[in-house]
Amino acid sequence: MENLSKRYGDKVAVDGLSFAVKPGQVTGFLGPNGAGKSTTMRMIMGLDRPGGGRATIGGRSYRDLREPLRRVGALLDAAGLHKRRSAYNHLLWLAQTNRIPKTRVREVLRLVGLEDAARQRAGGFSLGMAGRLGIAAALLGDPPVLLLDEPVNGLDPEGVLWIRTLLNDLAAEGRTVLVSSHLMSETALTAQHLIVIGRGRLIADTSVREFVRSAAPSHVRVRTPEPERLRDVLAAAGFPVKQASDGALEVYEAEADKVGELAAAHGVPVYESAVRTASLEEAFMRLTGEDVEYRGGGR
Ligand SMILES: Nc1ncnc2c1ncn2[C@@H]1O[C@H](COP(=O)(O)OP(=O)(O)OP(=O)(O)O)[C@@H](O)[C@H]1O
After folding, report:
1. pLDDT tens-digit profile of 128-155?
2. Which of 69, 101, 158, 272 is the most buried (most CB within 10 A)?
3. pTM for the model
4. Which residue intervals define the domain ABC transporter in the entry (predicted)?
């Protein structure tokens, strides 16, 4: 993506996005609802025309690809099916437009676990089954690039695990895999790299590990009957300290050992001390907090 932009009327959906998705790893594409993930993916696939900038796959825009199913596979809208066609015929029709042999249809149906449902009409599929069929379609041309928009949507726990393994296997074969989600924890289990956007702009382009480390550092949580005194001791030693709502202290940039030693040296009792690593959800909220378009009321 190079300076990719898109507006709908007054609404800026994608705002000067630039990033590259590399082969050999799963890249999570994250952002709160309305951040612009689907719009970006649609522009990559040539389904929406960019207002500015460009999106290319292996250096070419989608419309310049010959037999595109063999270059890039996408799952953009699992419900986008011909309802009366059987799963088999849906895939066969796609295969025939891209000179893909019939045998590949059976192969992908087996790969996604829909062999037994091959003759059923896609219109009767559950959300999870439709998702599997969408993934089968994406894999049909054995493409080196895969784009999946919210693929775990509607899948049961077994399905979620299945897709996690599948995506990692595909990346391990050297493919480029971009998978969007608004579920941070799920993405962290699947992806090694993250592109995070908010309000159409790039917020982070980093490894999962680095994302958590930089966005929400870990801290030592200490429970003491003398928080004021311990706070002074720690502050004097140069450690940033915050008091949590339950009275416990959160000490940043410090090892638990050091906190314990300082408390002991000043005779401050410690009831409990624990290192807390920020959860991915916290890191995500911290980074995207101001870029959330829709949020629930209350609080
Ligand atoms: N066809 C359209 N017409 C008008 N506005 C649109 C259209 N498509 C998207 N938008 C707006 O553009 C913004 C980005 O939407 P988009 O669907 O790309 O976000 P998203 O990150 O995929 O969100 P979600 O996680 O909810 O799927 C939103 O404000 C949305 O309302």
Report:
1. 888 899 999 999 999 999 999 998 887 8
2. 69
3. 0.80
4. 1-224
